[in-house]
Amino acid sequence: MSITLEKYVKSDKKQVKKLYLTAFPAEERVPFFIMINREKRGKSEMLTARDKGKFIGFVYMVCDEKLAYIFYLAVDDTKRGQGYGTKIIEALKEKYNGRRLFLAREQLDKSAENYEQRVNRHNFYLHCGFEDLPCCIKEGPVVYDVMGIGGKVTAEEYHSLIKDWAGILLKIVDMKIIEKQELL
């Protein structure tokens, strides 16, 4: 297994978009054209993961000098369970070395239909070196738990990162980081 992360090119669109639409629920998806627009404007990075040139998955990153936010990460469903996710995370750690790497993950809600999948995803990220952070991220109607490597992400840092990425969209979609005790 030899994973490479490559810059998204237009010829990747069909594979990436198909995986994006099947891997994430509608309420968690930013319109694909907005993602591509932000990537073209240098506000994000869309990376395809490949093994010996073969498409494995993709990662959508929103970054600044200090933070690297894994906005989306998906492995093709025919490749899951083969260690590719771990290899992608290792490649991200290397690529963004020196930045705090973080992600928003579905909360461990026992009443959720996919509770077991959520637990497995949480355990996967723990296995990859992520820690649960004492905050949540609210993006639109969905609240996520935050996991990271390298330390806490403050509300101010998140807001600055997302404001730069979202621009005017921030006025339309409520996106913010919340300390867990604020949710109680």
Summary tags:
184 residues, alpha+beta, Aminopeptidase
Give a quick precis of the structure.
By secondary structure, the protein is α+β, with helices and mostly antiparallel strands.
Total strands: the figure is 8
Strand-residue proportion: 25-35%
Poorly predicted runs of 5 or more residues: none
Class in CATH? Answer: Alpha Beta
Q: For this structure, what is the CATH homologous superfamily?
A: Gcn5-related N-acetyltransferase (GNAT)
Q: Which structural class do you get from the secondary structure elements?
A: alpha+beta
Q: What's the domain count?
A: 1
Main beta sheet, described? 8 strands, mixed
Write the layout of secondary structure elements.
Blueprint: E1 3-7, H1 13-23, H2 32-40, E2 45-51, E3 54-63, E4 67-75, H3 84-95, E5 100-106, H4 115-127, E6 131-139, E7 142-149, H5 155-166, H6 169-172, E8 175-179, H7 180-183
Parallel strand pairs: 4-5
Antiparallel strand pairs: 1-2, 2-3, 3-4, 5-7, 6-7, 6-8
Summarize the structure in words.
The structure is a single chain. With 184 residues, this protein is an alpha+beta fold. The chain has one domain (3-183): Gcn5-related N-acetyltransferase (GNAT) (Aminopeptidase, 3-Layer(aba) Sandwich). 35% of the residues lie in helices and 33% in strands. It contains seven helices and eight strands. The chain has helices at 13-23, 32-40, 84-95, 115-127, 155-166, 169-172, 180-183, and strands spanning 3-7, 45-51, 54-63, 67-75, 100-106, 131-139, 142-149, 175-179. The protein has an eight-stranded mixed beta sheet, with helices on both faces. A hairpin with a 3-residue loop joins strand 3 and strand 4. It is globular, with a radius of gyration of 16 Å. 29% of the residues are buried. The mean pLDDT is 90.
